Amino acid sequence: MSKMAEMAQTIEELRTAAASINAAADWLYQQFSGDDNKAQVTETPTKKETKPELKLEDVRAVLAEKSRAGHTAEVRSLLQKYGAAKLSEIDPANYEALMKDAEVIGNGS
């Protein structure tokens, strides 16, 4: 895993931990405040955790690492699968699926 990918994963883990701590603090506040109406209002937003959007740089770092590991042909065919000759031509909505497909490159060899 490249340094950039490791950093992105660490940042994501920190954000997840912060969200969990915030949810626990909200729950404790609700339990000891005695205000049931507030409890219902603050519960709804804490349940909805949004996943940070993947950026071109994140995807590029992962694909570059795969390419450096000798899987350039697989990376090119993966880009073609998403209808592009280069990464910048891929629709950002497809980044997550592209990353999942890229994870398997090099794992079987």
Task: Jot down its keywords.
109 residues; mainly alpha; 2 domains; 72% helix
User: Helix/strand/pairing class, anyone?
Assistant: mainly alpha
Shape descriptor reads: elongated
Distance between the termini: 16 Å
- Write the H/E string, N to C: HHHH
Biggest sheet statistics: none
Number of strand elements: 0
Q: Roughly what is the average pLDDT, rounded to an integer?
A: 82
Rg over alpha carbons: 20 Å
Beta fraction: under 5%
> What's the number of structural domains?
2
Helical run tally:
4
Structure description:
This protein has helices at residues 3-33, 36-47, 56-81, 95-103. The protein is mostly helical and 109 residues long. It has two domains: 1-51; 53-109, no CATH class. 7% of the residues are buried.
Q: How would you summarize the topology of this molecule?
A:
Elements (H helix, E strand, L loop, with lengths): L2 H31 L2 H12 L8 H26 L13 H9 L6
Helix pairs in contact: 1-2, 3-4
Would you kindly provide a brief summary of this structure?
The protein contains four helices and no strands. The protein has two domains: 1-51; 53-109, no CATH class. It has 109 residues and is an all-alpha fold.
